[in-house]
Write a structure and sequence with these properties.
Length: about 600
């Protein structure tokens, strides 16, 4: 059967067809949909892990026990998982194991643009790079074969355009692969130094075999065309073909670590004195390989050193012009920056926190990062996923040493707390700084589309699971000052902040209210938060509105101002549109009580 699939869907399908038994991931754009799509295949045990390191460790354990296993994550997740990955590269597998890294050139939803091809090189594991959805299916199957043949985990690297673009695929039946027998083998699976020394030698022997394989695999090939040469892998193959078409001969690379030295020599021998372009995103990985082999090529900086290498980018870089486009009047387009949704439970908290003087706020990775924008200006810096508490702790130590009276506040979400934020809380509690740690508990992993986590009480299938109580976890770690508030109740938020600021010891504030986009507002949610959750509506009583714009300071997209000469001294009236879901924050800040519930 043929159908359209995104790369993420196709990777899940390829794993299914390859007979995978176990799949684990932590959600992160652009990789999230891989594991979400695995849940439709009941032959595979799929799970959300609390973080990427845990997902790789679980997949490694399943592999050692004989299962075919996989873990998927966005590029920065591999940083978290690297500890497990590098050691598992030494021990090798029993059942095949594949790690999927979804890189993001252009940083559409990421804090950096790192090139994870270097992880394959550094950990000494083979790497494959599909260029479309069909190759995602095919290479998943090949990856498991390579993993078991060469006794190694395998990395499949994709990028955003592969993950989210659709192309036609051919579906095939699942191949049922038996779970391999587990045999205790200390000399293979327990890398204490005495054992690891032998494993290190075996890694090099494996790399020698893989170097021969990469020159022979059909995943790398020369596609004959015109007298221009192009070397590319992944989506850049398709981008290059849109620019050069049949006028170029392509060295198409699907198996990209180790790279095929002999095939490269053959390619240059065929091309003679032709101009060779190396098209790649992020770092000059392929370019450096070509130059180390002693060949000339046109790569970076002619090809831009960052961002996506889309056809227009390549045309501009190589030909100095792009294809003609339609002229669209700029005054007809309206900027639409990201903003917290109507009814977002983070809004009331940021409104109150932003008022605090001499405060430095460490944010984290999630929807709540938007607390940095107007009108809140309530986040000063962000480092990485789960860093808020530990970073704020470091800042608080510095402020206390300097004696400047500043307070540090760390802010992260519920999923991020379980990711590794609780380790940061341990840092604060163990070392006794007066850092204020805030968990914005909106009952879901909001930024990536509403995935479950250990605090939601449901697993990846939506079935009941053990629910970890954030308040209980904080108290179990030793936090004495823990307050749970409704973030839409501004007086509760204000009182909790007042109490925390008054203490010279750690404090934890948990704001607890569901995300307005939470996909499963089931009975338990309504029992806890009320039957009218997100169903109330508010309106502005024009006669009471003085046009002061106090309601605009809460930053809700449902609230706006309209000109109304003569209505009041300012000639402005507030208005609330139909997207209102009744959080009540604007009504609480209105000085004249002009905002009323319908």
């Amino acid at each position: 059967m043929r159908m359209l699939m995104t790369g993420d869907e196709a990777l899940a399908r390829g794993a299914y067809e390859a007979g995978v038994h176990f799949a684990s991931a932590y959600p992160g754009t652009p990789s999230t949909e891989i594991l979400q799509n695995m849940t439709q295949y009941k032959e595979v045990f799929s799970e959300w892990a609390p973080n990427e390191k845990v997902s790789v460790e679980a997949a490694a354990g399943a592999s050692i026990a004989g299962m075919r296993a996989m873990a998927s994550m966005k590029h920065v997740g591999v940083n978290v998982a690297a500890d497990a990955l590098f050691t598992f590269a030494y021990t090798g597998v029993n059942g095949g194991m594949v790690l999927i890294s979804a890189d993001e050139p252009g940083m559409h939803s990421s804090q950096n643009e790192q090139d994870n091809r270097y992880y394959a090189q550094a950990s000494k594991i083979p790497m494959l790079e599909p260029s479309d959805s069909q190759e995602c299916i095919d290479m998943m199957k090949v990856a498991f074969e390579i993993s078991e043949e060469f006794d190694t985990p395998v990395m499949i690297r994709i990028t955003t355009r592969i993950a989210h673009s659709k192309s036609i695929v051919e579906l095939k039946d699942r191949v049922e692969v038996p779970i391999r027998e587990y045999v205790k083998d200390i000399r293979k699976n327990l890398p204490v130094p005495a054992v690891a020394l032998g494993l290190r030698i075996r890694v090099e022997e494996r790399m020698t075999k893989l170097a021969k394989y990469t020159d022979e695999t059909p995943l790398n090939y020369i596609e004959k065309g015109g007298n221009i040469g192009v070397i590319a892998s992944g989506k850049c193959v398709n981008f290059a073909k849109e620019v050069f078409g049949d006028s170029a001969t392509y060295l198409k690379l699907g198996f990209t670590y180790p790279l095929p030295d002999k095939l490269l020599d053959e390619f240059y021998a065929q091309m003679g004195d032709a101009t060779i372009y190396v098209i790649e995103e992020n770092d000059p990985w392929l370019q450096h390989w070509v130059e180390r082999r002693g060949y000339k090529c046109v790569g970076k900086p002619t090809i831009p050193p960052f961002g996506e290498m889309t056809p227009d980018v390549l045309r501009a870089a190589i030909h100095g012009k792009t294809l003609p486009t339609l002229d669209v009047p700029t005054d007809m387009s309206v900027p639409r920056p990201p903003i917290l949704c109507s009814g977002c439970p983070h809004r009331g908290f940021f409104y109150e926190l932003a008022k605090r003087k001499d405060t430095v706020i460490a944010g984290d990775i999630g929807c709540y990062t938007l607390g940095y924008i107007e009108p809140y200006n309530a986040i000063d810096y962000v480092i990485c996923m789960s860093s808020a508490f530990s970073a704020a702790h470091g800042s608080q130590i510095a402020f206390d040493k300097a004696g400047n009276g500043k307070r540090a506040v760390g802010v992260l979400g519920d999923s991020t707390f379980f990711h590794m934020g609780l380790n940061g809380l341990i840092e604060v509690l163990y070392n006794g700084s007066k850092t204020i740690c805030v968990v914005l508990d909106n009952r879901i992993t909001g930024m990536t589309g509403g995935q479950e986590h250990p605090g939601t009480g449901k697993d990846i299938y939506g079935e009941p699971a053990h629910e970890m109580d954030i308040e209980a976890v904080c108290r179990a770690l030793g936090a004495k000052n823990v307050t749970v508030v409704n973030p839409n109740n501004l007086s509760q938020v204000r009182n909790a902040l007042d109490a925390a600021y008054a203490k010279d010891e750690p404090s934890v504030i948990i704001t607890r209210w569901p995300c307005v986009l939470k996909p499963d507002m089931d009975e338990a949610v309504y029992e806890e938060f009320g039957r009218d959750l997100f169903k109330k509506k508010y309106f502005v009583e024009d006669a009471k509105c003085i046009g002061c714009k106090a309601c605009m300071k809460v930053g809700c997209p449902s609230v706006s101002m309209r000109e109304c000469p003569g209505a009041n001294k300012l000639g402005m009236l507030a208005q609330i549109d139909a997207t209102c879901v009744g959080c009540d924050v604007c009504a609480q800040v209105c000085p004249t009580k002009a905002i009323q519930q319908k």
